[in-house]
Amino acid sequence: MINCPCGYGKNIPENQKSCPVCGTDLTPLHHLKGLPQSIFEEGKKRAEEGDGNSAVEKLLTAITLDPELTEAHVQLADIYMETNRLNEALAHYQKALKNNPNDKEIREKIKKAETRKNKISSPKFFSKSMFFFLPAAAFILGLSIFPLSKYFGKNGEQQINPVNQANEIKEKIYLHPDLQGMKIEVQTQNSGLFLSGEVPSKLHKSLIREILTQAAADCPVDLQNIAITPPAEKPEKKPMVFTYTVRPNDSLALIASIFYGDSSLWTKIFQANRDRIKSPQEISVGQVLFIPLNSK
Fold first, then answer.
1. 116 and 93 Cβ atoms separated by less than 8 Å
2. Last residue in a domain, options 199, 228, 257
3. Which residues face 199 on adjacent strands?
4. Are residues 166 and 223 in the same domain?
5. Are residues 183 and 214 in the same domain?
6. Residues in Cβ contact with 80 at an 8 Å cutoff, skipping those fewer than 6 apart
7. Total count of domains within the chain
8. What predicted TM-score, i.e. pTM, was given to this entire model?
9. pLDDT mean values, one per 10 residues, the chain (296 residues)
């Protein structure tokens, strides 16, 4: 069950593809709701295949999208237990227990993690183990510090890795519900990022630019080869919206300028959010606003 962004369609079942009140296409929202479970399943599969790092990355993504996904917390905690990251394991077991207070299996896992943690942190264990662990720790620390010089400049400033940023931006674009299914490529080129592909409107391109503003830092980005190609057939006119989270120093005029290229269209955003904004001057950091797709 989902709610339509218009604010009037409530508890809409998965088999209903549009809002019965405003007619908005709800397919992206249905897909987004099922996304955490899908990413969790992929993380579980990676864990079973022995790819722990990839599994942790997938599970953390699933939890970020749905903090109440109990099985993802438990799976992640189990991986942390295997690598003796006991504080992290306990934190995720506790979150899973908070979601399911009567789960006896989770309680047993917490008890096991606490027992192991107490045993490792006891003075007796430390006194016997210190002689063996300290030389090994010093050796490992030396190995870990040496390669870091590759990633930092002469002044100790971290260097931007375009490949890592390309992967991060790909994930943000591909997971965004309003950009899924679009042919957008992100490649590295001359120590920067080169984007190409097609989007159906100027607003979609503005949305990509907004994602890059938050993710690309100082890395040069080229958006010139993203073409705006409207659909061949004019679809039935339905009110569609994006969501935008207000940042420090934002105003409705500034947000309208970002998405429409015209600050005077702030009234369009204000009208779409009358149920949550008392006046145009009263928007707050962290507030989620609806941005209508069509500025006319």
1. no
2. 228
3. 228
4. yes
5. yes
6. 86, 88, 89, 92
7. 2
8. 0.38
9. 71 77 71 78 87 84 85 89 85 89 90 85 49 46 41 47 70 77 78 81 82 70 82 60 87 89 90 89 90 70
